[in-house]
Specification:
The chain is mainly β. Helix content is 2%, strand content 55%.
Length: 292
């Protein structure tokens, strides 16, 4: 398929990340991690509102009608949009002040999976956690460096996970009734020339869409055949994540970052930090929300 990238918002986000499409409200949540911001984009109005916090936010996921789950620097929080109050649920890494939460998503049964990383990029300091319905938190994968993309196959049989410096997608068996994963089945190697794999989403056919930090692109992969199917060039060097949205879930929203690029790259990619959109010929999956 031949896909054209459209600039939706030229906001120059420092570290745009974590897009989540709210299918019920037909709006997009995303974050600017280093600016401590949650953005809410309303495509029908072409308007965006911003909520500011006091610490970095790695990901945002709706809970119920007016609450948000936030994976922040100092733990996982619940934010009430009506009362504008923030409640800390748990901070499993209080003893690791240099760590912060990064990417997060909910599994098909509504458990929250969120991973951490060292803010200076030290390897092996992070962990991928699972927050259950009763708000109990469990470490699922340890010795993680930069916890990033997460996805579950449409048949709920497989869990896909990216720890960026490994330059691969890890594939696990997944049990939806318990939320457990088995030992890793295999890995999908991402070629060096594509850049570093970052955030990830999945379409209704079970194909993975991967954002590439430093690669100025999103790629589509067949995880069963370990085959690269499509490359979508993005006019921003550091592409951070993507998710399907729109009424029919055929619009691929793409977040990018303006941090970490040279003056030369800034001239080459003047829309770095923007929010982009691609109209695709496939549909995505309805994004899972947290269920307590």
């Amino acid at each position: 398929m031949s896909l054209t990238v459209e600039l939706v918002l030229d906001v120059k986000a420092t570290l745009g990340e974590g897009p989540h499409w709210d299918h019920q409200k037909q709006q997009l949540y995303w974050v600017d991690i280093l600016e401590n911001k949650v953005h809410v984009y309303h495509p029908n109005k072409n308007q965006q509102q911003t909520i500011e916090f006091s610490e970095p936010i790695g990901a945002v996921i709706p809970k119920g009608d007016h609450q948000l789950m936030l994976a922040m620097k100092n733990g996982i929080h619940e934010y009430d949009l009506e009362t504008e109050t923030l409640r800390k649920i748990v901070d499993p890494e209080e003893s690791l002040p240099d760590n912060r939460f990064n990417d997060a998503k909910c599994d098909p049964s509504g458990r929250l999976w969120a991973g951490t990383m060292d803010m200076d990029g030290k390897l092996g300091r992070g962990t991928l956690y699972r927050l259950d319905h009763d708000e109990k938190i469990t470490p699922m994968i340890t010795n993680v460096s930069i916890s990033n993309g997460l996805a579950w196959s449409p048949d709920n049989k497989y869990f896909y996970y990216i720890d960026t410096p490994t330059k691969e997608v890890k594939v696990y068996h997944y049990q939806d009734d318990t939320g457990n994963i088995s030992e890793m089945i295999k890995t999908i190697a991402i070629p060096e020339e594509l850049g570093n794999p970052d955030g990830m989403t999945i379409d209704s056919k079970g194909m993975l869409w991967i954002a590439h930090w430093g690669g100025a692109k999103v790629t589509r992969w067949d995880p069963y055949e370990e085959q690269l199917l499509e490359i979508v060039e993005v006019p921003a060097k550091n592409v951070t994540s993507c998710t399907f949205g729109g009424e029919n879930l055929t619009d691929l929203y793409i977040t990018t970052a303006s941090v970490g690029i040279s003056d030369e790259d800034r001239k080459k990619y003047p829309f770095s930090g923007g929010l982009f959109k691609v109209k695709t010929n496939v549909s995505g999956m309805v994004a899972n929300t947290y269920q307590k």
